[in-house]
């Protein structure tokens, strides 16, 4: 396996992480129990609730972060990997 293959694996992992629906937008299911979220009351437009444990979007939502070190130092573009053959 070459360094370029490893860099391609990191790029693919980043692309998949950024396409994850829970990263791109609001979740569709409760992160605690996996139950589908239900729309909040009309007095609170744009909110979603879990009827089983009281979890609420956006009040309790924390945007997922990529695994530590997975994307650090990955440069993009031609000629960005100085020192590699």
Explain what you see:
The chain is of the alpha+beta class and 85 residues long. The protein has a domain at 3-57. Helix content is 25%, strand content 7%. The protein has helices spanning 3-19, 21-24; strands at 38-39, 48-49, 56-57. A 3-stranded antiparallel β-sheet has the order 1-2-3, with no helix packed on it. A hairpin with a 6-residue loop joins strand 2 and strand 3. It is elongated, with a radius of gyration of 19 Å.
Please describe the topology of this protein.
Layout: H1 3-19, H2 21-24, E1 38-39, E2 48-49, E3 56-57
Antiparallel strand pairs: 1-2, 2-3
Strand order of the largest sheet: 1-2-3
What value does the Rg take, in angstroms?
A: 19 Å
First-residue to last-residue Cα separation: 14 Å
Largest sheet: 3 strands, antiparallel
Poorly predicted spans:
79-85
Q: Give the helix level as a range of percent.
A: 10-25%
Proportion of beta-strand residues: 5-15%
Number of E strands:
3
- Average predicted local confidence, pLDDT: 78
Structure summary:
The protein is an alpha+beta fold and 85 residues long.
Main attributes of the structure:
85 residues; alpha+beta; 3 strands; elongated; disordered C terminus
